[in-house]
Amino acid sequence: MPALKVRKERFQGQTHCRQLENVDVLPGVLRRSSLPCRTPTYVGCVVSDTSAAIKNLTEERDTLQRKLDVCGEQHTAVSDRYAAKRADLEAAIKSLTEERDTLQRRLDVCENRLQQGWVLFQNRYYYISSDTKSWHDSKADCVQKGTDLVIINSKEEQVSLRNFLRKFQKRVWIGLKETEGVWKWVDGTQLSKSFWMPGEPNNYEDKDEDCGEIRYYDQEDSWNDEPCDTQHNWICEQAP
């Protein structure tokens, strides 16, 4: 009886071994073993080979993941540089467009003013009247043109304007008027730097000479006070 039991277990073990030989443990990794058909040895081989395959696949996966991470970082860096460059270009386009539009508006204003008789001199526009009016009417004409009578705040402006007016040789009203004994410009600021002719202002012959004019062009101190209803040419001024 014992001998029969041993032969039966050996037969069952051999049958189980053949069954294992026909099983794919890991598709594409381990198919059939060339080991002799002994169950314990065969199973140990399968486990060993399977562990090695898993290790190799894990390392390969980790390597690919690292490469993918590096690729992603490089892609992000390139995208960031592209976005920054695009932002710089868009800002430059916007700035140039605004500058172009500003220059176009200034050109339109310049051409329009030149057609209306204005003269561009040292980055300022001047309008010299061809007829004469009182000081108040002269001021009103400048205001109608969107500006006012000229204001002179420095020696440089005085010299520049005097040189400009020399070719016209006209006595012109400027934006200077006396109010209650105080000389003020048309913008309301009080006179601080003056270029009166010697002895001026003087209310000559007790006249109410409350308005200022440029009378001469061959000397720096060329201002004179005149009665405001006197008929003179006038000069309007406007910045570009």
Report the structural category.
Answer: alpha+beta
Low-pLDDT sequence parts:
1-38
Mean pLDDT: 82
Radius of gyration: 51 Å
Main CATH class of the largest domain: Alpha Beta
Q: Based on Cα principal axes, name the global outline.
A: rod-shaped
Profile the largest sheet: 8 strands, mixed
Q: Helix fraction?
A: 40-55%
Q: Number of domains in the coordinates?
A: 2
What distance lies between the first and last C-alpha atoms, to the nearest angstrom? 125 Å
Q: Which topology of the largest domain does CATH recognise?
A: Mannose-Binding Protein A, Chain A
The H/E string reads HHEEHEHEEEEE
- Percent strand equals 15-25%
The count of helical stretches stands at 4
Total DSSP E strands: 8
Q: Could you say what the CATH architecture of the largest domain is?
A: Roll
Please, what is the CATH homologous superfamily of the largest domain? Mannose-Binding Protein A, subunit A
Keywords: Coiled coil, Disulfide bond, Lectin
GO molecular function: carbohydrate binding
InterPro entries: C-type_lectin-like (IPR001304), C-type_lectin-like/link_sf (IPR016186), C-type_lectin/snaclec_domain (IPR050111), C-type_lectin_CS (IPR018378), CD209-like_CTLD (IPR033989), CTDL_fold (IPR016187)
Domain C-type lectin: 121-237
